[in-house]
Write the C-alpha cells for this entry.
Amino acid sequence: MPLILLPIMFLALPLIEIAGFVVVGNMIGLWPTLALVILTSLLGAVLLRFQGLSVLKEASRESQGGNLPGRSIVSGAMVVVAGVLLILPGFLTDIIGLLLFIPPVRHFIWSLIGKRVVVMRTSRGTSASYRSDNSENSRPSDKAKVLDLDENDFSRGSNPSSPWSDTDNRKN
C-alpha cells in the first residue's frame, strides 16, 4: 500500500463516521443513535474478553502440542483489532469490527495473508523462523539447512570494526 494512502485514510475515516452518524441520526433519532454507539462499545468489550480468551487457549493448545500457532496468533490479533474497532465510536468501524469477530471472516483473511506470515520461535540462545505454508498447523520442514561448526571450523578474525572480533572495539 502506498504511504500516501495512510494520511488520506486517517482524514477520510472521521468524515465517513460523521456522515454515518448524521444518516443514522436522521433515520432513528438522536437518543437511539447514541444508545447504539454505547451498546456497540459494550458489545466490543464483552466479545473481546470471551473470544480473546478462547483464541489464547487455542494458541496455547497448539504450542503445547508442538505446533506453531501462527494462525491462532494472527486470529488473536484480528480479535484484538475487532474489539478496539467496536469500542471506538462510529458505524463503519463497528461493521468492520463485527466482521472480524466472525471466525469464517478471520479464516478468509488468514487464507489471504497466511503465506506472508513468518512465525519466530526462540529458546535459550537459539532462534528460528518459519514461513507459514497456509496449512492449519505448519511445522518446520526437515529440509531446513543447519550448519553445525566445530571450534576448528570457525575463526573470529582480527577486524577491529567487526562486532564478532576478539578485540574490544568499544572506546571508553
Confidence is low (pLDDT under 50) at residues 134-140.
